[in-house]
């Protein structure tokens, strides 16, 4: 049996095609919900994605508590959550005795799961979807770069790499375990979402904006720079705000400036199926997200990345992503380039997708099936 570790809505999305392929081959698996996004909300989310609901739940969400508190309170919540999660996972793994446990990406649950499975002492093989991704700077993004390095370097047994650079990173680090270059399953996921959930988009002539990184929303100067850029944007802006990001704007006294911009459409977080349709119809993406670089590349949408480094270096090499940090002049330059269909815009539209051939899901499940 294989156990899929899922605690966030994003992880459910990223495992979605793999789980469906497991079902189609009638391979044994269970889904374990680690609880970052709660239990009931994850059940509802899995149903919307046409996925089986979690078989195992290991705790309730602490997101509301986290966002209500300041940094010290958040750290206390995090410490408590970590201290209770490890014994819970160890107990679950000893009871279930899976042959493989597979985790995704770079959230804190990745190293916690890896460590817990080793401590369970029942011979579990550990697999990592999206292994080997590196910015080569532990502080950007933080703590994601640390999370994936800990899991990949010493603990993971089966590395599923989405890019050739990820393979190269693991080999240079002499990482433990076997390395498989499979490509990026997001190609299949995006295709499924657009076919299954086509939607009309009410916005026109807009850029899709996403902001959530810890090191960015806790930096007042960076937030001010972004607001300055939005005031001068040649496009309308579609900007879904999660609770934490909204409260940071309020704390820095920037929320009113945002609300006063008639061309900026603020909203609550948008469900992923609608968000993909919004991305597909956007003029560009302005983001600090890792995942949006993938989606923009796949959809050939210009991606202006508010970071100085990226783990998805293939999207930069293809020409689909530019790194601007929070440099106001650079961000505005590329927004205007897209508006005028300039060099960057044309490069994106002619770019070659370097993230794979759309067969990553099959390759991953082929390996997992061999391990059963």
Protein traits:
single chain, 372 residues, alpha/beta, Rossmann fold, 2 domains, seven-stranded parallel sheet, six-stranded parallel sheet, 18 helices
Structure description:
With 372 residues, this protein is α/β, with parallel strands linked by helices. It has two domains: 2-184 and 357-371, Glycogen Phosphorylase B (Rossmann fold, 3-Layer(aba) Sandwich); 193-349, 3-Layer(aba) Sandwich (Rossmann fold). 50% of the residues lie in helices and 15% in strands. The chain contains 18 helices and 13 strands. It has helices at 9-24, 40-48, 63-68, 71-96, 109-120, 144-155, 164-173, 186-196, 214-217, 220-231, 243-251, 255-259, 272-280, 291-299, 313-317, 328-339, 343-349, 360-371, and strands at 2-6, 29-33, 56-57, 100-104, 125-129, 158-161, 178-181, 206-210, 236-240, 264-267, 284-287, 303-305, 321-323. The strands form two sheets. The protein has a seven-stranded parallel sheet, with helices on both faces. The chain has a six-stranded parallel sheet with strand order 10-9-8-11-12-13, sandwiched between helices. Strand 4, helix 5 and strand 5 form a beta-alpha-beta unit. Helix 4 (71-96) runs parallel beside helix 5 (109-120). The protein is globular. The model has no long low-confidence stretch (mean pLDDT 93).
Principal-axes shape call = globular
Could you tell me the number of beta strands?
13
How many helices does DSSP assign? 18
Rg, rounded, reads: 20 Å
Q: Topology of this protein?
A:
Elements: E1 2-6, H1 9-24, E2 29-33, H2 40-48, E3 56-57, H3 63-68, H4 71-96, E4 100-104, H5 109-120, E5 125-129, H6 144-155, E6 158-161, H7 164-173, E7 178-181, H8 186-196, E8 206-210, H9 214-217, H10 220-231, E9 236-240, H11 243-251, H12 255-259, E10 264-267, H13 272-280, E11 284-287, H14 291-299, E12 303-305, H15 313-317, E13 321-323, H16 328-339, H17 343-349, H18 360-371
Parallel strand pairs: 1-2, 1-4, 2-3, 4-5, 5-6, 6-7, 8-9, 8-11, 9-10, 11-12, 12-13
